[in-house]
C-alpha cells in the first residue's frame, strides 16, 4: 500500500471508532473551533458552550443585584469547599478534604510547608527530579526556608531512595504524570514505600486530575495539589486544589494563615485560631469569577467516571501509537512515552529535532499540540474533546511536515512566548 | 422644625448636590439595583454594566477560538504586569513596579517575606496593632517562620516606636486606612520615619487604592499590597496587587518562587533564575477570568483622577456628618471616624450597640452598609457609586430604626455569615 492508502484506511478506522464512541456526545458540551484538532487539552481545556452564559448569570443575576450580600445569598463563601468536594469525587476523596483557590504554585508552597511541619524532626524532602519547574523551584525555596535538605531523584528511583534515606525523609514530593514524557507514577506504590519509612507524600496531580482514576483515600495519600485548567477544563489559570487527608487536618500548622482559614473569619479576632477541618487550609478571598467558571465546568464529571475517561484515553493512545508506527517509522521522530498503559498518563510525547518549527507548522494546519523546548512535542489526549479522527490527522500532518521538511520554511522560525 | 422637615431639607440639599455632581455620569457605568443605596463599595464594588459582555467576549472570542494560543494571541501572559501598570497609575507608581495576581493574603505573605529578607540582620517587624486580621495573622506567621519578632503598636504610635526600636526594625507594616475606624494613616510621615531609622515600609492599601490620592514613588514607599475588589470594583475576590519599588526589585529574594517569576518561564530550567524587574514577583498562573474582569473595571480610572474622587468622598463624608448631627444627636450612636478630612479614609464608622440588628434592618430598607461585630456599622462612601441622596437616606433610616427600636424585631436576630 502506498501512504495515501494507509492514511485512508486509518481515517476509516478512526471514523468507525468515533461513531461508536459513547463519549462523543459529551464533546458537544465544549466549543472547539471547526477545523481544529485540539491536542492540547492537557495544557488548557476548552470552554463549555455554556460557560459565558454562566458567567453572565453570575455577574448580572448574583453580583449586580445582591452586591455584597451575594457572598451569603449565593453562597460564594462556601465555594472553595463546595468546589473542592466536587473535585474530591474525581480524586477518590471523601468530602471535607479538598479546598480550591489560589494558583497551583501557591498551593504547592502551602502543601509542602504543611507537610514538612507535620513531619518535624526529619530533614530531607525527596523531590521528583523530573518535576515541573515550579515544583522544583518551590521545593528549593521551602527547604531553604525551613532549614531542610532537598534530595532530587528520578521518580523511578523514589522507592530505592526511600530505602536508603527513609528515616530522614519528611515528605516525598512527586508528580503523578511526568510533564515531559507523560510517564505515570506508581502512586500507591510510592505512597506505601514512603509510609513504611514514616515519611509523608505530596502528589502534584496537575496532569492526572479529571483523567486518571485516582483513589487518594484508599491509597492513604497525605497531601496533594493540582491545577484545574487542564483535564478539568476550568478555564485559563483556574484556581488550584489542595487535598489534605482527614488524618492530618487538625494537627496541621499552615504557614499561609489567611483570614479565610480562621475558625471565625468574621469575628475579626486579632489572633489566629485555625478552623477545624479542611477550612484551615483556606487562605484569602477566592477569585469568584474564575472559581464559579470552574464549578460550571465540573458538571460534566457527574455524567462520566474517570474509569471510562481513562479507558478512552488509553484507546486514543494505542491508536496514536498504531498511526505513528504506520506513518512515522522511517522519520526522525520517536515516541518517548511508555507503551505500557499502566505507565503512561494523558499525553504522548514525541521527540523531534526543531520541535518548535514542527509545532508551528502543525498549528498552521489546524493541529494544536504542545511544545516543550527544545525537542519535544506533546499530544494531549483529553478524552472529552479528542476524537480518533483528531489523532490520525495529527500523526498524518506530523509525518507529512517531517517528510517534506515543511517546517523548515522561514515563517516557522520566529520566536514567541514558547518557541 | 420637626424631624420630617429636617429630613425634607436634607433631601433637597442632597438632590441639589447630586444634580451638580459631574461624577454622576460615571455612576451609570455601574449596575446598582433600583431602590438600593449602596454604602458598601468599600467591601465589594458593583459590576460595570459591561462586565458580563466583556467576559462573554473573553470566553467566546478569545478562549474558545484561540484555546491555548490565546495566552500569546490575546496577551493573557502579560496581564499581571499590564493590569499592574494600570493600577500603578492610581497609586502614583511609574510603570514596571506593580504586578497583579493571587489573593491579598498571599501578596501580604509575599511582600512581607521579601521585605524582611531585604532588611536581613534586623529582627523586628513593626505591625499596626489595628491591622485587618489577615495582616496580623500573616505577620505573626512570617516572623515566626523567619525567626523575627513582631511588635504590634497602634498606627498613631508608629513614629514613636521607631524612635525607640528603630535600629532593630526590618519592616514597618501598616494599613493606609484602618478597616474599623476609617482613620487614614500618615503614609509619607511614617515612611520617612522608617527610612530615617533604616527600616523598610510595607503598606496595605486595600482601603485606599482607587480612592486616596497616593504618590508611592514620590513618598519612596518600599512595598505595598492591596485588594482590587473595593474601590477599584474588580469583582468578588478580584486578584490583589503588589508594588515593589524599582529600588528593591533586583536585590529582592522572593520566597514564592513560582515559575511565572522565572527569567525564562518556558525554558523549563530545573533551577530558579529570577526574572529582572517586577516580573520576579509573579508567582503562578493568573486566574484570567477574574484578572480581565478587573482590567475591564479599571477603564473608568482613565476618565477621573483620584484627586477628584477623593474630593467628592470628602464632601460625602462632611454631608454624612452634617446629616448625622441633625438626625442622630440624641441617639445611642457615635461616629468614631475622625472629622478631620486629612485623617479619614473612605468610610464612616458609627458605633452602635447591637450593630448586627441595625445592619439587617437597614438592608431590609434598601440601605446596604457594612458590619463589624459587635458594635460597628461602616458606611462606605465610594465616590463613583454613592450619591448625596444615598447618604441622607442612610442616616435617616439609621436614625428611624434606632429611634423606633425597629431593629429589635425578632426577624433581625438570626445569625448568618457576619451577624
UniProtKB/TrEMBL annotation, chains A, B:
One MF annotation (Gene Ontology) recorded for this entry: kynureninase activity
Catalytic activity: 3-hydroxy-L-kynurenine + H2O = 3-hydroxyanthranilate + L-alanine + H(+); L-kynurenine + H2O = anthranilate + L-alanine + H(+)
Modified residues (N6-(pyridoxal phosphate)lysine): 230
Cofactor: pyridoxal 5'-phosphate
Pathway(s) of this molecule: Cofactor biosynthesis; NAD(+) biosynthesis; quinolinate from L-kynurenine: step 2/3; Amino-acid degradation; L-kynurenine degradation; L-alanine and anthranilate from L-kynurenine: step 1/1
Key words, A-Z: Hydrolase, Pyridine nucleotide biosynthesis, Pyridoxal phosphate
Quaternary structure, from the entry: Homodimer.
Family that this chain belongs to: Belongs to the kynureninase family.
Function: Catalyzes the cleavage of L-kynurenine (L-Kyn) and L-3-hydroxykynurenine (L-3OHKyn) into anthranilic acid (AA) and 3-hydroxyanthranilic acid (3-OHAA), respectively.
The protein's name: Kynureninase
Organism expressing this protein natively: Saccharopolyspora rosea
High-level lineage: Bacteria, Bacillati, Actinomycetota, Actinomycetes, Pseudonocardiales
Gene (name only): kynU
Amino acid at each position: 500500500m502506498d501512504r495515501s492508502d494507509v492514511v485512508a484506511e486509518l481515517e476509516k478506522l478512526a471514523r468507525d471508532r468515533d461513531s461508536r464512541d459513547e463519549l462523543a456526545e459529551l464533546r458537544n458540551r465544549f466549543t472547539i473551533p471547526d477545523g481544529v484538532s485540539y491536542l492540547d487539552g492537557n495544557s488548557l481545556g476548552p470552554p463549555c458552550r455554556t460557560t459565558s452564559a454562566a458567567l453572565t448569570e453570575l455577574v448580572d443575576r448574583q453580583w449586580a443585584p445582591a452586591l455584597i450580600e451575594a457572598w451569603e445569598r449565593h453562597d460564594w463563601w462556601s465555594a472553595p469547599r463546595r468546589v473542592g468536594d466536587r473535585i474530591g469525587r474525581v480524586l477518590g476523596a471523601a468530602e471535607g478534604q479538598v479546598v480550591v483557590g489560589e494558583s497551583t504554585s501557591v498551593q504547592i508552597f502551602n502543601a509542602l510547608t504543611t507537610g514538612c511541619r507535620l513531619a518535624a524532626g526529619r530533614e530531607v524532602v525527596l523531590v521528583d527530579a523530573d518535576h515541573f519547574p515550579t515544583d522544583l523551584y518551590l521545593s528549593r525555596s521551602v527547604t531553604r526556608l525551613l532549614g531542610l535538605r532537598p534530595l532530587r531523584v528520578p521518580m523511578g528511583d523514589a522507592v530505592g531512595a526511600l530505602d536508603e534515606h527513609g528515616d530522614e525523609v519528611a515528605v516525598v514530593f512527586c508528580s503523578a504524570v511526568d510533564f515531559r514524557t507523560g510517564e505515570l507514577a506508581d502512586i500507591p506504590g510510592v505512597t506505601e514505600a514512603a509510609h513504611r519509612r514514616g515519611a509523608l507524600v505530596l502528589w502534584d496531580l496537575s496532569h492526572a486530575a479529571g483523567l486518571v482514576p485516582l483513589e487518594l483515600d484508599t491509597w492513604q495519600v497525605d497531601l496533594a495539589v493540582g491545577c484545574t485548567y487542564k483535564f478539568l477544563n476550568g478555564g485559563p489559570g483556574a484556581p488550584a486544589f489542595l487535598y489534605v487527608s482527614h488524618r492530618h487536618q487538625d494537627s496541621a500548622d499552615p504557614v499561609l494563615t489567611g483570614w479565610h482559614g480562621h475558625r471565625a473569619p468574621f469575628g475579626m479576632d486579632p489572633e489566629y485560631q485555625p478552623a477545624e477541618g479542611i477550612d484551615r487550609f483556606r487562605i484569602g478571598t477566592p477569585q469568584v469569577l474564575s472559581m464559579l467558571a470552574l464549578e460550571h465546568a465540573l458538571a460534566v464529571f457527574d455524567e462520566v467516571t474517570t474509569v471510562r475517561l481513562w479507558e478512552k484515553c488509553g484507546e486514543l493512545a494505542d491508536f496514536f501509537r498504531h498511526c505513528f508506527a504506520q506513518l512515522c517509522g522511517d522519520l526522525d521522530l520517536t515516541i518517548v512515552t511508555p507503551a505500557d498503559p499502566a505507565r503512561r498518563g494523558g499525553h504522548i510525547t514525541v521527540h523531534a529535532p526543531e520541535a518548535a518549527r514542527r509545532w508551528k507548522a502543525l498549528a498552521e494546519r489546524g493541529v494544536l499540540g504542545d511544545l516543550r523546548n527544545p525537542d519535544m512535542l506533546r499530544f494531549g489526549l483529553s478524552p472529552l474533546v479528542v476524537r480518533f479522527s483528531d489523532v490520525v490527522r495529527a500523526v498524518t500532518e506530523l509525518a507529512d511536515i517531517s517528510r517534506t521538511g515543511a517546517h523548515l520554511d522561514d515563517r516557522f522560525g520566529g520566536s514567541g512566548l514558547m518557541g
